[in-house]
Design a protein that fits this description.
Length: about 170
């Protein structure tokens, strides 16, 4: 089990599974969601439409898995992070659930390497420092309970999230 933090474009990093910060509709959107759908091509949207037909969208804190289309991965795990509403609506637990449920799907599909974006820290306005702490705690807790290791890579598009995650993991300190 290894956890690392890199700065870059999540759509260009090879992994068994790339986690997508999706919206409840699963139909693509802005930010990392739009980038993953654009880079992965129409196959991802096709798979999402099959999930929608079967169960509707995806609820906040939950996760679903699709193929990865043209991305350098086998799967895309779509998870819906919470919109920050002051912290009084279960946002922290819902964010932790995103990480746990994504890792559970990765484990169920025998994934050895999983990349995560900074879930909910963009247009959903989750405070970045809180999000980094929750992400690290949830991932470390999940991985500690697993017999076989999953390597996790936090892929940060911006310097602020990168620095916060490095600090949270005590990398470079």
């Amino acid at each position: 089990m290894k956890i690392e933090v890199v700065r870059g474009d999540i759509t260009r990093i090879a992994a068994d599974a790339i986690v997508n910060a999706a919206n409840t509709s699963l139909l693509g959107g802005g930010g990392v969601d739009g980038a993953i759908h654009r880079a992965g091509g129409p196959a991802i949207l096709e798979d999402c439409r099959k999930i929608i037909a079967r169960q509707g969208g995806c609820k906040t804190g939950e996760a679903v898995i699709t193929g990865a289309g043209d991305l350098p991965a086998k799967y895309v795990i779509h998870t819906v992070g919470p919109v920050w509403n002051g912290g009084t609506h279960g946002e922290e637990e819902k964010l932790a659930s995103c990480y746990r449920n994504s890792l559970q799907l990765a484990r169920d599909h025998q994934c050895c390497t999983v990349t995560f974006p900074n879930i909910s820290t963009g247009i959903y306005h989750f405070p970045k420092e809180k999000a980094a702490a929750i992400a690290v705690r949830a991932v470390q807790s999940f991985l500690a309970g697993q017999p076989a290791g999953i390597n996790v890579i936090f892929v940060c598009f911006d310097e602020e999230n990168y620095s916060l995650l490095k600090a949270e993991l005590k990398i470079g300190h």
